């Protein structure tokens, strides 16, 4: 017998204790939960009980993919043998494209080495044989999530309040996010690594395009697009042109000075408040 109470306690510590809200066609679900592609409702219920978080189950790959924009799961479980002779392994590449940051774990009672190899080659992160226990399920999902987290962190470049995902080509800030081209991402990432240092445009060109011949106008257009995106997303970061020398990525001194002044005003206000209290002790 599985101890659901113990399993739920451990799962909450590993994954999170929030249940998801229901999503509409316009609202994404952003709390901890998992997805399961399996035609056996008992398996789906076990996963939900073991992990202590909501599990949304699908019996067909088509239904799962059709709902992809509504979900951001913390993990995905896929059975090999589905109803109507459908094979879960065939849908793994599409599932991986929909949710690149979520671990995919294949679950099946078939211990064929061929299936294990095919699952991993298709993009799955792990493989669990039925029947499985709570501790194994929790441990495998937690481990795979940590691996993906570490792997994805290598693709993140940050400066000021800007963050660039090199894999997804998304530049983001508290104000929003913008998809940029591969070359624009390379330019911004290189400037971040050289932040505070004036970089010649010729060096940027060689770093981004290598031995490929690119006109100065092409480089200027890309720099213009990067600078425009930075201005859209941040008032704290700027790409400064140093005449006759090159470019430098730096924090906007005016914006930083404004923050310091605001902080100083807050501190002065607090100080005045305490002075107004006189010698009263508490």
Quickly list its features:
Arc Repressor Mutant, subunit A, Rossmann fold, four-stranded antiparallel β-sheet, 2 domains, 282 residues, alpha/beta
Description:
This protein is of the alpha/beta class. It has two domains: 150 residues, Rossmann fold (3-Layer(aba) Sandwich); 100 residues, Winged helix-like DNA-binding domain superfamily/Winged helix DNA-binding domain (Arc Repressor Mutant, subunit A, Orthogonal Bundle). Helix content is 45%, strand content 18%. The protein is built from ten helices and eleven strands. The strands form three sheets. Strands 2-1-3-4-5 form a five-stranded parallel sheet, with helices on both faces. A four-stranded antiparallel sheet has the order 6-7-8-9, covered by helices on one side. A two-stranded antiparallel sheet has the order 10-11. Helix 4 links the parallel strand 3 and strand 4. The N terminus is likely disordered.
Q: Strand fraction band?
A: 15-25%
Number of strands: 11
- CATH architectural grouping of the largest domain: 3-Layer(aba) Sandwich
Number of separate domains: 2
Helix content: 40-55%
Q: Averaged pLDDT, please? A: 79
CATH fourth-tier homologous superfamily of the largest domain: Response regulator
Q: Can you count the helices?
A: 10
Q: Globular, elongated, flat, extended or rod-shaped: what is the shape?
A: elongated
């Amino acid at each position: 017998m599985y101890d659901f109470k113990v399993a739920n306690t451990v799962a909450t510590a590993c994954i999170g204790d929030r249940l998801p809200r229901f999503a509409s066609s316009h609202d994404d679900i952003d709390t901890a939960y998992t997805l399961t592609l399996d035609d056996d409702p008992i398996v789906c219920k076990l996963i939900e009980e073991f992990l202590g978080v909501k599990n949304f189950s699908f019996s067909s790959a088509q239904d799962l993919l059709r709902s992809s924009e509504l979900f951001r799961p913390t993990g995905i479980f896929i059975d090999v043998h589905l109803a109507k002779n459908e094979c879960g392994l065939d849908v793994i590449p599409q599932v991986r494209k929909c949710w690149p940051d979520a671990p995919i774990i294949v679950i099946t009672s078939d211990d064929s080495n061929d299936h294990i190899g095919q699952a991993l080659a298709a993009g799955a992160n792990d493989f669990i044989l039925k029947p499985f226990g709570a501790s194994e399920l929790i441990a495998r999902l937690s481990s795979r999530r940590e691996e993906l987290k570490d792997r994805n962190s290598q693709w993140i470049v940050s400066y000021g309040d800007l963050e660039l995902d090199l894999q997804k080509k998304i530049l983001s800030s508290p104000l929003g996010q913008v998809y940029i081209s591969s070359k624009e991402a390379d330019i911004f990432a290189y400037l971040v690594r050289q932040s505070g240092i004036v970089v010649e445009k010729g060096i940027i060109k060689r770093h981004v395009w290598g031995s490929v011949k690119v006109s100065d106008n092409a480089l200027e257009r890309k720099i213009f697009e990067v600078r425009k995106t930075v201005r859209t997303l941040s008032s704290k970061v700027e790409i400064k042109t140093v005449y006759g020398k090159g470019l430098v990525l730096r924090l906007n001194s005016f914006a930083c000075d404004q923050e310091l002044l605001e902080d100083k005003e807050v501190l002065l206000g607090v100080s005045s408040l305490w002075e107004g209290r006189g010698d009263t002790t508490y």
